[in-house]
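#onboarding

Welcome to the new folks! Below is a worked example of what a typical request in this channel looks like: someone posts a single protein sequence, and someone else replies with the predicted structure as tokens. Don't worry about understanding the tokens yet, we'll cover that in week two.

Example request:
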Amino acid sequence: MPETNRLQNYINGKWCESSASQYLEVHNPATAETLARVPLSPPEEVDQAARAAAQAQVEWRRVPAVQRIQPLFKLKDLMEDAFEDLARSITLENGKVLDDARGEIRRAIENVEVACGIPMMMMGDFSEDIARGIDEYMIRQPVGVVASICPFNFPGMIPFWYLPYAVACGNTILIKPSERTPITMQKVFHLLEQAGFPPGVVNLINGGPDTVNAILDHPLIAGITFVGSTPVARHVYARAAANGKRVQAQGGAKNPLIILPDADLETTTNIITDSVYGNAGQRCLAASTVVSVAGAAKSFVPALAEAAQKRKVGVGLEPGVQMGPVITPQSKERILGLIQKGVDEGARLVVDGRDAVIPGYEKGNFIRPTILDNVPAGSTIATTEIFGPVMGIMHVDNVDEAVALVNSGKYGNMACIFTSSGAAARRFRYEAQAGNIGINIGVAATMAFFPFSGWKESFFGTLHGQGKHAVEFFTQTKVVVERWLKDWSRQF
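Example response:
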């Protein structure tokens, strides 16, 4: 492997070769080709980055907000110019189709645009004469040094749920990308370097679990954001909180889609198919459980099966491909095992996506769209986050049972309903216990100016990513009660 394929860290405004004793190979999941080698950075390099960020933050917080956002304006233009290159990078290292990767970069840019409004979003409150001659006001100040631990499934977007808001609010930041998909952030940090941030304001540290724990334990890091599985989210939340840090940790999901008999057949089928199989099901908002109500199953199960069988699977850069591979061979084996588990537990295999072979890409981690019908309540398929292209179909008799089924799950990331009834939709929106609700929408992905919500075991914390929640998370409030005892104005 040429040395040029060894990824670097970016610390205090400089690209740095890691002293890591171990490097992991980064593979293209569609071809098994080795794309790069990523260092598992030791705790000493986390310390170096945290110290550089802490030193830079002393001056960065004094920069007026209207000036702090100027590099973000430049970054937006740089990302627009590099749009196709960034999208292609995501497809190569993640496997998702190019159109999905383009959508991911567009969402990243939207967060940069929203964060440029920090001079208004960061405003405090003022109340005059709370008592005679006494005023009280609240201001927002930066937290200090923060860190974001990012997942493999959105290597270009999810760091931007946090980075632009953090730096615009006067913080400095460490980004730890997934060791499975670290290449896109290398490209982004070259753009950040061009955007004009002072040394130490933005830092990139590559690594694995030991690097993460060093971040969680570091005394100079005041805030942590995380997106990943629920077990790891719980670990991040507990360990960081025990160290006195503020934390938001996005966990796993098991997102149900409810179909009422009055839903439009063609449109609903297309939306659900895209929701379940987009990015090969490796999205925190991917639908995984479809719940048919009353007579909906009669028409929808055959329609969904036909749509799944028609979906073109292949390499994401090739025209017409609608679904790529899963991220690793280990993920593929885990998903195949879950499919068999579903059959063993009584589900009916309607569409079998196992033994997928894409000519010319036999080493790729491909699974074709799969459908399991009559999934038993409480079974492994009904309760496990598969994170793969598998649709489980369940059946209930009425809306009461559908809502109860949604609310019985331990996750609460997203829930959607498909119907022509406004009353049914309103009731579902009101009662469903999930943080992101879709009405005739298959992926209820929030715009950058709304928080990406999550409930129950899908989220640990209080404030979510994006929008106003991000501003609140990356600032701490200070209340000042003020009185002036001598009135000099009367002497002039």
